[in-house]
Amino acid sequence: MSGLVEDFLAREKDGLAGLEDEIPQAFQENGNFRDQDEQHNSFSNASDRSSSTEVPEKIKKWREEQQLRLQEKDAAEEKAKEALRKQAEKELEDWYKRHEETIAKTKTLNRESAKNAEKECVAEVEEMEPGTEWERISKLCDFAQSTKASKSLKDNSRMRSIILQLKQSPLDREKA
């Protein structure tokens, strides 16, 4: 197989051997087909065109006016942002005040309800009669069915039914 490759390369080398003389000198040095005079003329023509196409006075004036309008708009926007920041800070402070007040009210209500519940519990202990234990337990349990079916809460329906059954027909101490 290497013989085929060598034959191909030899044929191509022979076919391209005369092309080196035909390539102009400018291409070999600069890497393009134009000679140096043509290159110089094309560059000078480009600079002549750019100087002849100056920006008209009306466009210059419009650009200056546009720049001024943009600066005014930027300044107005900064003022509006600052006003919104101040308003947001004030609203946030007000919200924190209301939140602290709500928490304080909730704490006092919870303390009062805990004291009342403790007083009721102590009063019931004093009035305790034999056989009313399950009634007292059922009062302490919340038997209201919640409308939300939460996955995080355990199912207490069996415990609820047993406590209600014991409340209605307490166990006899003699059987146990």
TrEMBL record:
<dbReference type="GO" id="GO:0005198">
    <property type="term" value="F:structural molecule activity"/>
</dbReference>
<dbReference type="GO" id="GO:0032050">
    <property type="term" value="F:clathrin heavy chain binding"/>
</dbReference>
<dbReference type="GO" id="GO:0030132">
    <property type="term" value="C:clathrin coat of coated pit"/>
</dbReference>
<comment type="function">
    <text>Clathrin is the major protein of the polyhedral coat of coated pits and vesicles.</text>
</comment>
<keyword id="KW-0968">Cytoplasmic vesicle</keyword>
<protein>
    <recommendedName>
        <fullName>Clathrin light chain</fullName>
    </recommendedName>
</protein>
<feature type="compositionally biased region" description="Low complexity">
    <location>
        <begin position="42"/>
        <end position="52"/>
    </location>
</feature>
<keyword id="KW-0472">Membrane</keyword>
<comment type="similarity">
    <text>Belongs to the clathrin light chain family.</text>
</comment>
<dbReference type="InterPro" id="IPR000996">
    <property type="entry name" value="Clathrin_L-chain"/>
</dbReference>
<dbReference type="GO" id="GO:0099631">
    <property type="term" value="C:postsynaptic endocytic zone cytoplasmic component"/>
</dbReference>
<feature type="region of interest" description="Disordered">
    <location>
        <begin position="15"/>
        <end position="85"/>
    </location>
</feature>
<dbReference type="Pfam" id="PF01086">
    <property type="entry name" value="Clathrin_lg_ch"/>
</dbReference>
<feature type="compositionally biased region" description="Basic and acidic residues">
    <location>
        <begin position="55"/>
        <end position="85"/>
    </location>
</feature>
<dbReference type="GO" id="GO:0072583">
    <property type="term" value="P:clathrin-dependent endocytosis"/>
</dbReference>
<dbReference type="GO" id="GO:0030130">
    <property type="term" value="C:clathrin coat of trans-Golgi network vesicle"/>
</dbReference>
<dbReference type="GO" id="GO:0006886">
    <property type="term" value="P:intracellular protein transport"/>
</dbReference>
<dbReference type="GO" id="GO:0030672">
    <property type="term" value="C:synaptic vesicle membrane"/>
</dbReference>
<keyword id="KW-0168">Coated pit</keyword>
